[in-house]
Amino acid sequence: MGAKKGYRIQLGSMLKQLYPEDWIITPIFSWTLYQMAVTKYKANETQSSSIYNQMSPTVPQLDFRDYLMDDDSILNEDLVAWVTIGAMHVPHSEDLPNTATAGNSANFFIRPFNYFDQDPSIGSTNAILITPTGDPYTFTGQKVERYGTPVGPQCVPKDQKTDFKGVYG
């Protein structure tokens, strides 16, 4: 189709840093100030923090903001996406004796963007595309493109004899 191809980073869970940016120990966890940051790949930039940061909170061994300060161009370069994910947990009595994790998640997706000229599922067997035609408010007509799928298949249960009398066994 001529559209530029790429990838989309979709954040599924985000957590905003609640501490002020100018707080005296913010430098030891400065990566938390960014939901996502993209930098040019550098072999010496392998992590966003250091275990040694806790030894010097005001002047950390590694301050993530330094990665962003060099202002390198990212055009036609290998990139690193620094994605921060998290979830806010408000403690409650059901946390005792342990905190259940069911239903909690933190994630992100890397998804194709303009990667295909059309929905790739069109290449699947039994693909059918129904496009409305005519008046969009009354649905007076439609164009059905079957992509070679025969008219025969239908989604209805087969007629089967059942001997169920209300009890099992």
TrEMBL record:
Highest taxon, organism lineage? Eukaryota
InterPro entries given in the database record:
Cu_Am_Ox_Cu-bd, Cu_amine_oxidase, Cu_amine_oxidase_C, Cu_amine_oxidase_C_sf
* Species whose genome carries this gene: Desmophyllum pertusum
- Pfam families (alphabetical): Cu_amine_oxid
Named cofactor requirement(s): Cu cation
Protein name in the entry: Amine oxidase
An example Gene Ontology cellular component term from the record? plasma membrane
**What's this protein's family per the entry?**
Belongs to the copper/topaquinone oxidase family.
Q: Which GO terms describe its biological process?
A: amine metabolic process
Q: Name one GO molecular function term.
A: quinone binding
Mod. after translation: Topaquinone (TPQ) is generated by copper-dependent autoxidation of a specific tyrosyl residue.
Which keywords are on file for this protein? Copper, Metal-binding, Oxidoreductase, TPQ
